[in-house]
Amino acid sequence: MADDSHDAHDTHVQNRITDLAALKVFTHPLRIELWRALSAVRTATASQLAEQVDEAVSLVSYHLRKMAEHGFIVESEPPEGRSGDARERWWTPSDERPFSFRTSDFSDRPEGAAVASTVVRRLMETRGEQYTTFLEQAASWPKEWLDAAFSSETLVRLTPGELTQCEAELAEVTARWKARARTAEAETGDDGVHREHVALHLYGFPFRP
Length: 209
Prior knowledge:
The chain is mainly alpha-helical. The protein is built from seven helices and five strands. Strands 2-4-3 form a three-stranded antiparallel beta sheet. The protein has a two-stranded antiparallel ribbon with strand order 1-5. It is globular, with a radius of gyration of 18 Å.
């Protein structure tokens, strides 16, 4: 199976997970949900994340610490203009440890293959739930967002090398748009441009009809 990324940063395969203990962190679906939520807001406390995922603060704090143990998230300063409770930690995704891995790095032993498969299944489940939520809430979105949203499927015949190149080019496209959005926000600030968090789910895998 090819690379699977849930990457909130512009780095891609270079710092991918190769340690089995680290990959095991994401066998728990709540940690994937917390990673996604924290990646979207960039900086948050356990209390703020607990509200987003509708779980107890103590439970969220526990899972955040587990993610921090393997370097996926790190403590940070509060966002500008926010002080909050000095006793509560602020967290942010680590630029040194993006959530990216290749199942082939773990296929040399049964436990590794099982863990990688579990994480991929968890990711697929949560991505599907995310898109289903959008569909269920479609009536609440303005027409411009409904027109802009897309879901597509393209079938092509490729070699393994061509599929690898295709994935790299798609990663470059998403990284370019991410950088473009960040630059625009930094330069213009709150200028009335309506931005929302957008989930881009890209898949590429072989099949036999």
